[in-house]
Amino acid sequence: MQKPDKKTKYLKALKAAFPHTIPIFAGFWFLGLTYGIYMNVSGFSFWYPCLMSLTIFAGSVEFVAVNLLLGAFDPLQAFVMTLMINARHLFYGISMLDKYKGTGLKKFYLIFGMCDESFSINYTADIPEDVDKGWFMFFVTLLNHFYWFSGATLGGLFGSLIHFNTEGLDFVMTAMFVVIFMEQWLKDKKHTSAVLGLALSALCLIIFGADDFIIPAMVAILGVLTFARGWLEKGEKEE
Amino acid sequence: MTLIEQVIMIAAIVAGTMLTRFLPFLLFPAGKPTPEYIQYLGKVLPASVFGLLVIYCLKDVEIMRGSHGIPEFLSIAAVVLLHRWKRQMLLSIAGGTILYMLLVQVLF
Lengths: 239, 108
Hints:
The complex is a heterodimer.
Chain A: H1 2-41, H2 47-55, H3 59-70, H4 75-86, H5 89-96, H6 106-112, H7 116-124, H8 133-158, H9 171-187, H10 192-208, H11 214-227, H12 229-238
Chain B: H1 3-27, H2 36-57, H3 70-86, H4 89-107
């Protein structure tokens, strides 16, 4: 009788995960379609967005990849650029060390698919007691991956045929991160880290500009949090 | 670029992405105790990271030109108010996004 049991476990996790991914469905279809169209007008067949969305699964890098593929053959430069753009994922990994523990083989897929959105949901979501946490996070990641892949592929295939006015739909991602930021804020007792994240990132954006601010912002956040460790931890123990 | 060269380029991008995602898990495997400093970072970093992601989404907004970031400001205010009022994720996100689309398509 183990089979039906397992089936209900998967279904339950999928049902709990799906509502969390609805905003990402909207955002990824929009961005994915845009990406597919962009590849299409850059002269690549739909196979490129299709396979690249499956294997890379990191939005901003895939847009950069189009330019890299159009330029000179330089895999080392492509590798280093990817490291720079995706460096923020290092922070996600450090934050998920505990949560991804004990998820078995799924862990490889969870880490592979840990984009901004998968990380944010899996870190903040209140997973109901009776839902398997590992499978919940697995389905969040899988659904996100599927939205991105299907959006990119459809964009590559039919992108030029779309005419309905989607201007501004990409704001759905900003809105989602604002909500996630607020949820984290409501959970935290101290808001030092949240305020630091906003302020240091904004400061670095002003100093270094849109294309180069992420790494300085990460270094600044890491530096200040390390420096303030004694004080931040002391506060926690006093609670 | 030949097809082989393109495949190598894409493989390099996949490798770069995977390195940033897997590295913390390789450095601090589940079987061994994680250093206290890393555990501390794991606890305090997320709040900062969500702040970074919000700024990241707004990085191309130009305050001095175009619509001066007014649609972004108003829509984020709407998201915050909606979320404080009902605290329903989908409602806050949909409300803010629809307002933003109206603002950029109709007003600005």
